[in-house]
Amino acid sequence: MAIVKQVSGRYFSRIETASREEIDEVKLERLRWTVKHAYENNSFYHRALKKAGVTPSDIRSLEDVSKLPFTLKKDLRERYPYGMISVSLEEVVELHASSGTTGKPTVVAYTRGDLENWGELMARTMSMAGVGSGDVLYVALGYHWFTGGLGFHYGGLKLGATVVPAGTGYTRRNITMIRDLGATSVAAVPNYMIRMAEVAGEMGVDLKRDMKVRTALLGAEMWTEEMRRRIESLWGLEAFDVYGMSELYGPGAAGECHVHDGLHVWEDHFLVEIVDPETGEPLGPEEKGVLVVTPLTHEAMPLLRYWTNDITFIYDSRECDCGRTMQRIARITGRADDMLIVNGVNVFPSSIETVLLRVKGVSPNYRVTVYREGGLDKMRIEVEAEENVPPDMYRVLERKLREGLRDVLLMNPRVEVLPPGTLDRVEGGKAKRIIDLRK
Ligand SMILES: [Zn+2]
């Protein structure tokens, strides 16, 4: 376990520590603006609100948000490409699109004001992680359709950091540049930090001796506390979780402070609710459900009650040792649509990762395959051993893993421990760790 010095970041904006009354006042004013804007300038919302029997003047308190209809990802897909945009195209200065792995892509649009807001949110998020004007920020995230790269880029510029728009791929070059430029902070998806560490080892680069990286800003895919510990110990840095998605500008809707106990939501820009995944009924603090978000400042593309499909809960207490008063959500350990149903049992891939990475000698490179055989669901889990584990120990590891997994999965999966370097690697994007052959 690496000894990581905790980085305590400064406040970027006064509102981060404002009183509850002030934050709620700003939220209500902006919620009313958003509903009115969507109703008056977008035909989809005009019809949806009429159908729900709601007019903008019905929104008198923050609780009234529950009167509004939900917006689903499919609503965005069906209105591809410009149907959700609520300003004239002349006012739109940037467009992004999701990868569209499950159908048509979804397009997200930004006005100049939206980009300004996004930069502010990312600056706050990174400042909270201790990044500032003295930092060299290495952005190893996609810069094309994906919002990751530019989100960190805009935030870094606003902070006055030295931003390196590296993108993904070219792993050996990334290692060389992180070292030579003396990068102090890296933004990436978690699995890429593992991949870079592996390649650095092949190149004979010592991450702790040869690198100056103090912090990593990670997100865009599911990752567990166990994965955080692995990354921190490999690199000798402190890793911060950053939450967002393209429909919410991109990364930067919420992030971790140095306390690492939940993520602060930037409430003056996002109204968050937790609802029951089945009924859509609002749930209380500390109750787990689907995160539903109403962005409060998005001009080009206002969304009402966007159903994120992410499972989390809102903290009951607003007090955090960092002094920020913005509410916190728990780390997202799974999307509702990532959940596997195996012989009638709900399994989140994060619970499998947790079991795997708790076993010493097991690497974070793994693959889970679900298939059907003889009318039953079966699961095969392939995982690579660490470099220093002798092959005659693999059987011992398999037995340990099987025992741990049986308790979580309530079934006996096939477990194969493989030599390092066996499974496919992803050079920068999200890892594809789950293969469901039943679909
Ligand atoms: Zn905090």
What does this 3D model show about the protein?
The structure is a single chain. Helix content is 30%, strand content 23%. The relative contact order is 0.12. The chain has helices at 20-41, 43-52, 73-78, 112-128, 148-159, 171-180, 190-203, 207-210, 225-235, 349-357, 394-409; strands at 92-97, 107-111, 136-139, 162-164, 185-188, 215-218, 238-245, 250-255, 263-265, 270-275, 289-295, 306-312, 328-329, 340-342, 345-347, 362-373, 376-385, 414-418, 434-436. It has two domains: 1-332, ANL, N-terminal domain (Rossmann fold, 3-Layer(aba) Sandwich), CATH 3.40.50.12780; 339-436, GMP Synthetase, Chain A, domain 3 (2-Layer Sandwich). It is built from eleven helices and 19 strands. The mean pLDDT is 94. Strand 6, helix 9 (225-235) and strand 7 form a beta-alpha-beta unit. It is an alpha/beta fold and 439 residues long. Zinc ion binds next to loops.
